[in-house]
Amino acid sequence: MLAVAAVIFYLFAVFGEGRAAPPHLDTPSHHDTDTMAHDAGGKPTSNLANYALQKVLDDASPIFGHFEESSKSDTSIWMKAYPDDTKLVHMNIPGTHDAATWNYSKATQQRLEPIAALNGISEVDPNNYRCQDNPFITMLNDGIRAFDLRYAHDVTNTTLVFWHGIGLQSQTATLDSLLFGFYAWLDAHPSEALFLSFQFEGNSIPNSANDLSVQSLLYASLTSPAAKQYISQTNTLATLGSARGKVTLLRRFDLNLLPSSQSANFPGLHFSPADWGDNPRNNSLVYDAETQAVAHIQDYYSPEVASGASAEEIIGSKFDACTDFFDYAASDAAPDELFWSFASSTKIGNEPPSTPRIQALGNGTELTPEGGVNDRLVEYLKGKQGKRLGIVMFDFYEQPGELLETFLGLSPP
Protein backbone atom coordinates (compact mmCIF):
# COMPACT_ATOMS: atom_id res chain seq x y z
CA MET A 1 0.00 0.00 0.00
CA LEU A 2 2.75 2.45 0.90
CA ALA A 3 4.68 1.56 -2.23
CA VAL A 4 1.70 2.25 -4.47
CA ALA A 5 0.97 5.47 -2.63
CA ALA A 6 4.56 6.59 -3.12
CA VAL A 7 4.40 5.80 -6.82
CA ILE A 8 1.16 7.72 -7.22
CA PHE A 9 2.56 10.71 -5.32
CA TYR A 10 5.65 10.75 -7.52
CA LEU A 11 3.71 10.44 -10.76
CA PHE A 12 1.55 13.42 -9.96
CA ALA A 13 4.46 15.45 -8.74
CA VAL A 14 5.97 14.92 -12.18
CA PHE A 15 2.72 15.62 -14.04
CA GLY A 16 1.49 18.18 -11.57
CA GLU A 17 1.22 21.02 -14.08
CA GLY A 18 -1.61 19.29 -15.89
CA ARG A 19 -2.82 16.08 -17.42
CA ALA A 20 -0.25 14.46 -19.64
CA ALA A 21 -0.47 11.69 -22.19
CA PRO A 22 0.65 8.29 -20.93
CA PRO A 23 4.43 7.98 -21.00
CA HIS A 24 6.05 5.53 -23.38
CA LEU A 25 6.28 2.25 -21.54
CA ASP A 26 9.29 0.88 -23.41
CA THR A 27 11.51 3.39 -21.64
CA PRO A 28 15.23 3.81 -22.36
CA SER A 29 17.93 2.78 -19.95
CA HIS A 30 18.54 5.26 -17.14
CA HIS A 31 22.15 5.31 -18.35
CA ASP A 32 21.04 6.90 -21.64
CA THR A 33 20.97 10.55 -20.69
CA ASP A 34 20.42 11.71 -24.29
CA THR A 35 17.05 9.97 -24.64
CA MET A 36 13.92 11.01 -22.82
CA ALA A 37 10.21 10.28 -23.26
CA HIS A 38 7.88 13.17 -24.10
CA ASP A 39 4.22 13.83 -23.41
CA ALA A 40 1.61 14.73 -26.04
CA GLY A 41 2.73 18.36 -26.04
CA GLY A 42 6.38 17.53 -26.57
CA LYS A 43 7.33 18.27 -22.97
CA PRO A 44 10.05 15.94 -21.62
CA THR A 45 8.93 13.49 -18.97
CA SER A 46 11.05 11.73 -16.41
CA ASN A 47 12.18 8.21 -17.22
CA LEU A 48 11.67 7.40 -13.57
CA ALA A 49 8.00 8.42 -13.92
CA ASN A 50 7.74 6.02 -16.86
CA TYR A 51 9.17 3.20 -14.77
CA ALA A 52 6.87 4.10 -11.88
CA LEU A 53 3.77 3.99 -14.07
CA GLN A 54 4.90 0.69 -15.55
CA LYS A 55 5.22 -0.73 -12.05
CA VAL A 56 1.66 0.33 -11.21
CA LEU A 57 0.33 -1.16 -14.46
CA ASP A 58 2.25 -4.39 -13.84
CA ASP A 59 0.62 -4.65 -10.42
CA ALA A 60 -2.78 -4.19 -12.07
CA SER A 61 -2.13 -6.70 -14.87
CA PRO A 62 -3.70 -9.80 -13.23
CA ILE A 63 -7.03 -8.04 -13.74
CA PHE A 64 -6.38 -5.17 -16.16
CA GLY A 65 -4.16 -7.19 -18.49
CA HIS A 66 -0.95 -6.00 -20.08
CA PHE A 67 -1.37 -2.38 -21.09
CA GLU A 68 -1.32 -1.65 -24.81
CA GLU A 69 -1.11 2.03 -25.60
CA SER A 70 -1.36 1.95 -29.38
CA SER A 71 -4.69 0.25 -30.17
CA LYS A 72 -6.84 2.42 -32.41
CA SER A 73 -9.21 -0.23 -33.74
CA ASP A 74 -12.69 0.90 -34.77
CA THR A 75 -14.17 -0.56 -31.60
CA SER A 76 -11.58 1.10 -29.36
CA ILE A 77 -12.74 4.54 -30.54
CA TRP A 78 -16.37 3.88 -31.43
CA MET A 79 -17.61 6.90 -29.47
CA LYS A 80 -15.57 9.22 -31.67
CA ALA A 81 -18.22 8.99 -34.39
CA TYR A 82 -20.95 10.42 -32.14
CA PRO A 83 -21.50 14.20 -31.85
CA ASP A 84 -20.53 15.94 -28.62
CA ASP A 85 -24.14 16.99 -28.00
CA THR A 86 -25.38 13.38 -27.91
CA LYS A 87 -27.21 12.82 -24.63
CA LEU A 88 -25.67 9.97 -22.65
CA VAL A 89 -29.13 8.71 -21.66
CA HIS A 90 -29.88 8.25 -25.38
CA MET A 91 -26.86 6.01 -25.99
CA ASN A 92 -26.38 2.24 -25.97
CA ILE A 93 -23.39 1.52 -23.77
CA PRO A 94 -22.06 -2.04 -23.40
CA GLY A 95 -20.63 -3.15 -20.08
CA THR A 96 -19.38 -6.21 -18.23
CA HIS A 97 -20.84 -7.68 -15.04
CA ASP A 98 -18.31 -8.71 -12.37
CA ALA A 99 -15.66 -7.55 -14.79
CA ALA A 100 -12.66 -8.48 -12.63
CA THR A 101 -13.36 -12.22 -12.67
CA TRP A 102 -11.86 -13.07 -16.08
CA ASN A 103 -8.73 -14.70 -14.65
CA TYR A 104 -10.39 -16.58 -11.79
CA SER A 105 -9.39 -20.24 -12.13
CA LYS A 106 -7.95 -23.12 -10.14
CA ALA A 107 -4.49 -21.84 -11.06
CA THR A 108 -5.34 -18.37 -9.70
CA GLN A 109 -6.66 -19.91 -6.49
CA GLN A 110 -3.48 -21.93 -6.04
CA ARG A 111 -1.27 -18.86 -6.55
CA LEU A 112 -3.32 -16.91 -3.99
CA GLU A 113 -3.73 -19.80 -1.55
CA PRO A 114 -1.09 -18.58 0.95
CA ILE A 115 -2.88 -15.21 1.06
CA ALA A 116 -6.41 -16.57 1.19
CA ALA A 117 -5.38 -19.03 3.91
CA LEU A 118 -4.67 -16.12 6.25
CA ASN A 119 -8.43 -15.80 6.62
CA GLY A 120 -9.31 -19.46 6.28
CA ILE A 121 -10.66 -19.11 2.73
CA SER A 122 -10.59 -22.47 0.95
CA GLU A 123 -10.78 -23.33 -2.75
CA VAL A 124 -14.16 -23.11 -4.43
CA ASP A 125 -15.40 -24.07 -7.88
CA PRO A 126 -14.24 -21.14 -10.06
CA ASN A 127 -17.11 -21.77 -12.50
CA ASN A 128 -19.48 -20.43 -9.86
CA TYR A 129 -17.65 -17.09 -9.71
CA ARG A 130 -16.15 -16.48 -13.16
CA CYS A 131 -18.18 -14.19 -15.41
CA GLN A 132 -15.66 -13.04 -18.04
CA ASP A 133 -12.87 -14.42 -20.23
CA ASN A 134 -11.01 -11.24 -21.25
CA PRO A 135 -8.87 -8.73 -19.32
CA PHE A 136 -9.91 -5.11 -19.04
CA ILE A 137 -7.54 -3.93 -21.77
CA THR A 138 -9.19 -6.29 -24.26
CA MET A 139 -12.65 -5.26 -23.09
CA LEU A 140 -11.78 -1.60 -23.59
CA ASN A 141 -10.36 -2.13 -27.05
CA ASP A 142 -13.36 -4.29 -27.99
CA GLY A 143 -15.71 -1.42 -27.13
CA ILE A 144 -16.80 -2.13 -23.55
CA ARG A 145 -17.36 1.16 -21.72
CA ALA A 146 -19.04 0.21 -18.42
CA PHE A 147 -17.42 -1.97 -15.74
CA ASP A 148 -19.04 -3.59 -12.71
CA LEU A 149 -16.37 -3.68 -9.96
CA ARG A 150 -16.82 -5.41 -6.59
CA TYR A 151 -14.36 -4.30 -3.91
CA ALA A 152 -13.58 -5.07 -0.26
CA HIS A 153 -10.63 -5.10 2.11
CA ASP A 154 -7.77 -7.43 1.26
CA VAL A 155 -7.05 -10.17 3.81
CA THR A 156 -4.84 -7.78 5.82
CA ASN A 157 -7.55 -5.09 6.02
CA THR A 158 -5.14 -2.48 4.67
CA THR A 159 -6.13 -1.89 1.04
CA LEU A 160 -9.02 -2.43 -1.36
CA VAL A 161 -8.93 -5.31 -3.83
CA PHE A 162 -11.52 -7.10 -5.95
CA TRP A 163 -13.64 -10.10 -5.02
CA HIS A 164 -16.56 -12.15 -6.23
CA GLY A 165 -17.98 -13.68 -3.10
CA ILE A 166 -15.06 -15.43 -1.38
CA GLY A 167 -13.16 -15.49 -4.66
CA LEU A 168 -10.14 -13.18 -4.35
CA GLN A 169 -9.22 -12.00 -7.85
CA SER A 170 -5.74 -10.62 -7.17
CA GLN A 171 -3.67 -9.26 -4.29
CA THR A 172 -1.58 -6.83 -6.37
CA ALA A 173 -4.37 -5.44 -8.58
CA THR A 174 -5.64 -2.94 -6.03
CA LEU A 175 -8.28 -0.30 -6.61
CA ASP A 176 -5.58 2.35 -7.03
CA SER A 177 -3.55 0.38 -9.59
CA LEU A 178 -6.61 -0.45 -11.68
CA LEU A 179 -7.69 3.18 -11.74
CA PHE A 180 -4.32 4.10 -13.21
CA GLY A 181 -4.88 1.54 -15.95
CA PHE A 182 -8.17 3.23 -16.87
CA TYR A 183 -6.59 6.69 -16.69
CA ALA A 184 -3.71 5.66 -18.98
CA TRP A 185 -6.14 4.12 -21.45
CA LEU A 186 -8.25 7.29 -21.52
CA ASP A 187 -5.15 9.36 -22.27
CA ALA A 188 -4.59 7.19 -25.34
CA HIS A 189 -8.31 7.29 -26.29
CA PRO A 190 -9.59 10.80 -25.42
CA SER A 191 -12.73 10.43 -27.53
CA GLU A 192 -14.10 7.75 -25.21
CA ALA A 193 -16.09 7.93 -21.97
CA LEU A 194 -15.97 5.27 -19.25
CA PHE A 195 -18.51 4.31 -16.60
CA LEU A 196 -17.20 2.55 -13.50
CA SER A 197 -19.69 0.97 -11.13
CA PHE A 198 -18.36 0.32 -7.62
CA GLN A 199 -20.14 -1.97 -5.17
CA PHE A 200 -18.96 -3.31 -1.82
CA GLU A 201 -18.63 -7.11 -1.85
CA GLY A 202 -19.85 -8.11 1.58
CA ASN A 203 -19.31 -11.86 1.30
CA SER A 204 -15.52 -11.79 0.86
CA ILE A 205 -13.30 -12.22 3.91
CA PRO A 206 -14.83 -13.41 7.21
CA ASN A 207 -16.53 -10.58 9.11
CA SER A 208 -16.13 -8.28 6.13
CA ALA A 209 -17.98 -5.01 6.61
CA ASN A 210 -18.45 -1.75 4.77
CA ASP A 211 -16.87 -0.01 7.74
CA LEU A 212 -15.15 3.33 8.21
CA SER A 213 -11.82 1.94 7.01
CA VAL A 214 -13.32 0.68 3.74
CA GLN A 215 -15.21 3.90 3.12
CA SER A 216 -12.14 6.01 3.91
CA LEU A 217 -9.94 4.02 1.52
CA LEU A 218 -12.55 4.27 -1.22
CA TYR A 219 -12.96 8.00 -0.66
CA ALA A 220 -9.19 8.54 -0.81
CA SER A 221 -8.83 6.63 -4.09
CA LEU A 222 -11.75 8.35 -5.80
CA THR A 223 -10.84 11.90 -4.69
CA SER A 224 -7.05 11.75 -5.16
CA PRO A 225 -5.30 14.34 -7.36
CA ALA A 226 -5.39 11.82 -10.21
CA ALA A 227 -9.06 11.07 -9.67
CA LYS A 228 -9.97 14.75 -9.71
CA GLN A 229 -8.42 15.03 -13.17
CA TYR A 230 -9.94 11.91 -14.66
CA ILE A 231 -13.25 11.42 -12.84
CA SER A 232 -16.19 13.60 -13.84
CA GLN A 233 -17.01 15.85 -10.91
CA THR A 234 -20.73 16.09 -11.63
CA ASN A 235 -23.62 14.10 -10.15
CA THR A 236 -25.75 13.65 -13.24
CA LEU A 237 -25.53 12.62 -16.89
CA ALA A 238 -25.25 15.27 -19.54
CA THR A 239 -23.72 14.93 -23.01
CA LEU A 240 -21.06 12.70 -24.47
CA GLY A 241 -18.88 15.75 -25.05
CA SER A 242 -18.85 16.53 -21.33
CA ALA A 243 -17.84 12.94 -20.51
CA ARG A 244 -15.13 12.30 -23.11
CA GLY A 245 -11.77 11.39 -21.63
CA LYS A 246 -13.39 10.96 -18.22
CA VAL A 247 -14.67 8.31 -15.85
CA THR A 248 -18.27 8.69 -14.71
CA LEU A 249 -18.79 6.99 -11.36
CA LEU A 250 -21.83 4.77 -10.88
CA ARG A 251 -21.91 4.73 -7.08
CA ARG A 252 -23.57 1.57 -5.81
CA PHE A 253 -22.38 2.44 -2.33
CA ASP A 254 -23.05 4.86 0.50
CA LEU A 255 -20.49 6.86 2.47
CA ASN A 256 -22.67 7.09 5.53
CA LEU A 257 -19.79 6.68 8.01
CA LEU A 258 -17.79 9.61 6.67
CA PRO A 259 -18.31 13.22 7.70
CA SER A 260 -21.15 14.82 5.77
CA SER A 261 -18.71 17.41 4.43
CA GLN A 262 -16.98 14.61 2.50
CA SER A 263 -19.96 12.59 1.34
CA ALA A 264 -22.06 15.61 0.34
CA ASN A 265 -19.68 16.73 -2.39
CA PHE A 266 -18.67 13.31 -3.69
CA PRO A 267 -18.90 13.01 -7.49
CA GLY A 268 -20.88 10.50 -9.49
CA LEU A 269 -24.35 9.07 -9.91
CA HIS A 270 -25.63 7.70 -6.59
CA PHE A 271 -27.42 4.34 -6.67
CA SER A 272 -27.83 3.72 -2.96
CA PRO A 273 -28.03 0.00 -2.07
CA ALA A 274 -31.14 0.83 -0.05
CA ASP A 275 -32.89 2.05 -3.23
CA TRP A 276 -31.51 -0.55 -5.66
CA GLY A 277 -33.62 -3.44 -4.42
CA ASP A 278 -32.84 -7.15 -4.50
CA ASN A 279 -33.25 -9.04 -7.77
CA PRO A 280 -35.30 -6.30 -9.46
CA ARG A 281 -36.88 -6.94 -12.86
CA ASN A 282 -37.68 -3.23 -13.20
CA ASN A 283 -36.99 -0.80 -10.37
CA SER A 284 -36.84 2.99 -10.51
CA LEU A 285 -34.76 5.27 -8.32
CA VAL A 286 -33.49 8.84 -8.16
CA TYR A 287 -29.72 9.01 -8.67
CA ASP A 288 -29.29 12.80 -8.47
CA ALA A 289 -31.21 14.51 -5.72
CA GLU A 290 -30.64 18.00 -7.12
CA THR A 291 -32.10 17.34 -10.59
CA GLN A 292 -34.33 14.43 -9.52
CA ALA A 293 -32.88 12.40 -12.38
CA VAL A 294 -34.41 8.91 -12.56
CA ALA A 295 -32.85 5.58 -13.48
CA HIS A 296 -34.64 2.35 -14.30
CA ILE A 297 -32.84 -0.80 -13.16
CA GLN A 298 -33.05 -4.46 -14.18
CA ASP A 299 -30.75 -6.65 -12.07
CA TYR A 300 -32.65 -9.93 -12.09
CA TYR A 301 -29.52 -11.88 -11.22
CA SER A 302 -31.24 -14.94 -9.73
CA PRO A 303 -34.17 -16.09 -11.89
CA GLU A 304 -37.17 -17.01 -9.78
CA VAL A 305 -37.97 -20.54 -10.89
CA ALA A 306 -39.08 -23.71 -9.17
CA SER A 307 -36.47 -25.75 -7.34
CA GLY A 308 -34.87 -28.26 -9.68
CA ALA A 309 -35.72 -26.21 -12.79
CA SER A 310 -33.82 -27.05 -15.96
CA ALA A 311 -31.13 -24.79 -17.41
CA GLU A 312 -33.51 -24.06 -20.28
CA GLU A 313 -36.14 -22.78 -17.85
CA ILE A 314 -33.68 -20.67 -15.87
CA ILE A 315 -32.19 -19.15 -19.02
CA GLY A 316 -35.68 -18.48 -20.36
CA SER A 317 -36.70 -16.67 -17.19
CA LYS A 318 -33.71 -14.34 -17.42
CA PHE A 319 -34.15 -13.77 -21.16
CA ASP A 320 -37.78 -12.79 -20.64
CA ALA A 321 -36.76 -10.27 -17.93
CA CYS A 322 -34.17 -8.76 -20.30
CA THR A 323 -36.54 -8.40 -23.25
CA ASP A 324 -39.37 -7.00 -21.11
CA PHE A 325 -37.01 -4.34 -19.80
CA PHE A 326 -35.53 -3.62 -23.23
CA ASP A 327 -39.01 -3.19 -24.69
CA TYR A 328 -39.72 -0.59 -22.02
CA ALA A 329 -36.39 1.19 -22.61
CA ALA A 330 -37.04 1.27 -26.36
CA SER A 331 -40.52 2.74 -25.94
CA ASP A 332 -41.40 6.41 -25.59
CA ALA A 333 -42.38 6.00 -21.93
CA ALA A 334 -39.26 7.66 -20.46
CA PRO A 335 -37.13 8.99 -23.32
CA ASP A 336 -34.82 11.16 -21.21
CA GLU A 337 -34.31 8.83 -18.25
CA LEU A 338 -31.47 6.38 -17.71
CA PHE A 339 -31.92 2.64 -18.32
CA TRP A 340 -29.36 0.28 -16.82
CA SER A 341 -29.72 -3.48 -17.04
CA PHE A 342 -27.84 -6.75 -16.60
CA ALA A 343 -27.92 -9.63 -19.09
CA SER A 344 -26.04 -11.68 -16.49
CA SER A 345 -27.48 -14.17 -14.03
CA THR A 346 -26.74 -17.35 -12.10
CA LYS A 347 -28.52 -20.08 -10.16
CA ILE A 348 -25.73 -22.06 -8.54
CA GLY A 349 -27.97 -23.11 -5.67
CA ASN A 350 -30.19 -25.02 -8.07
CA GLU A 351 -29.78 -28.74 -8.71
CA PRO A 352 -28.32 -28.98 -11.26
CA PRO A 353 -26.56 -25.62 -10.78
CA SER A 354 -26.70 -23.05 -13.55
CA THR A 355 -23.42 -21.10 -13.53
CA PRO A 356 -22.87 -17.64 -15.05
CA ARG A 357 -21.38 -19.31 -18.16
CA ILE A 358 -24.33 -21.67 -18.60
CA GLN A 359 -26.75 -18.78 -18.19
CA ALA A 360 -24.94 -16.69 -20.78
CA LEU A 361 -23.95 -19.38 -23.28
CA GLY A 362 -25.96 -22.52 -22.53
CA ASN A 363 -24.47 -25.83 -21.47
CA GLY A 364 -23.50 -27.01 -24.95
CA THR A 365 -25.99 -29.87 -25.08
CA GLU A 366 -29.45 -30.53 -26.45
CA LEU A 367 -30.76 -29.46 -23.05
CA THR A 368 -30.20 -25.81 -24.07
CA PRO A 369 -30.93 -25.95 -27.81
CA GLU A 370 -31.13 -22.17 -28.20
CA GLY A 371 -27.94 -21.56 -26.23
CA GLY A 372 -27.87 -19.05 -23.38
CA VAL A 373 -29.12 -15.52 -22.87
CA ASN A 374 -26.37 -14.07 -25.06
CA ASP A 375 -27.26 -16.31 -28.01
CA ARG A 376 -30.94 -15.48 -27.77
CA LEU A 377 -30.28 -11.76 -27.48
CA VAL A 378 -28.56 -11.58 -30.86
CA GLU A 379 -31.74 -12.19 -32.84
CA TYR A 380 -33.79 -10.05 -30.47
CA LEU A 381 -31.38 -7.12 -30.82
CA LYS A 382 -31.51 -7.32 -34.61
CA GLY A 383 -35.16 -6.33 -34.28
CA LYS A 384 -34.30 -3.25 -32.20
CA GLN A 385 -32.37 -1.27 -34.78
CA GLY A 386 -32.54 2.45 -34.08
CA LYS A 387 -33.65 1.93 -30.49
CA ARG A 388 -32.15 3.06 -27.18
CA LEU A 389 -31.64 0.25 -24.64
CA GLY A 390 -29.20 2.09 -22.34
CA ILE A 391 -26.33 0.61 -20.35
CA VAL A 392 -26.31 -3.19 -20.59
CA MET A 393 -23.92 -5.38 -18.60
CA PHE A 394 -23.00 -8.74 -20.13
CA ASP A 395 -21.27 -11.91 -18.99
CA PHE A 396 -18.85 -13.36 -21.59
CA TYR A 397 -19.75 -10.46 -23.91
CA GLU A 398 -17.57 -11.70 -26.79
CA GLN A 399 -19.73 -14.79 -27.30
CA PRO A 400 -21.36 -15.25 -29.71
CA GLY A 401 -19.26 -13.10 -32.00
CA GLU A 402 -22.24 -11.12 -33.30
CA LEU A 403 -23.46 -9.98 -29.88
CA LEU A 404 -21.32 -6.92 -29.21
CA GLU A 405 -21.24 -5.89 -32.86
CA THR A 406 -25.03 -6.04 -33.03
CA PHE A 407 -25.43 -4.09 -29.81
CA LEU A 408 -22.99 -1.35 -30.86
CA GLY A 409 -24.79 -1.06 -34.22
CA LEU A 410 -28.25 -0.51 -32.72
CA SER A 411 -28.18 3.27 -32.89
CA PRO A 412 -25.57 4.49 -35.39
CA PRO A 413 -24.34 8.11 -35.18
From TrEMBL:
GO terms for biological process: lipid metabolic process. Transmembrane segments: none annotated. Keywords: Signal. SUPFAM superfamilies: PLC-like phosphodiesterases (SSF51695). GO terms for molecular function: phosphoric diester hydrolase activity. Residues 1-20 form the signal peptide. InterPro entries: PI-PLC_domain, PLC-like_Pdiesterase_TIM-brl. It comes from the Eukaryota. The keyword Signal applies. The keyword Glycoprotein does not apply. This is Phosphatidylinositol-specific phospholipase C X domain-containing protein. It comes from Cladosporium halotolerans.
